[in-house]
Request: fold
Amino acid sequence: MFALPWAQTDLNKKIQSYAGKNLASTFEFAQKLTRAKDLQELVQIQTEFMQTQLKALNQQAQDLGDQRSRDVRVRRLDQVSLLQPLRRDRHTFHGARGLKAVSLLLTPF
Reply:
């Protein structure tokens, strides 16, 4: 069980998945380096690894950014749906000031 409320989010699961993939590819890279026969092959292995990793990291960053945007949109839609009943009954929360206080309570840190 996770102590943090966002620990089981799609974004966090993707981050964990990417971290595992990156670690595995780094380990594979290290193994290839140990099998290099000369300096030229070592440089070639390193160059290929860097190119592959930069492409992967770029794709991962794009994917994580897209996931974060989706999460924010969903969270805002959830907040709006929670506030709909409050907007109908303004007297309960003392008008606009009360709505502002409630929306601040629902806003993430």
In short: The CA atoms of residues 61 and 94 lie 44 Å apart.
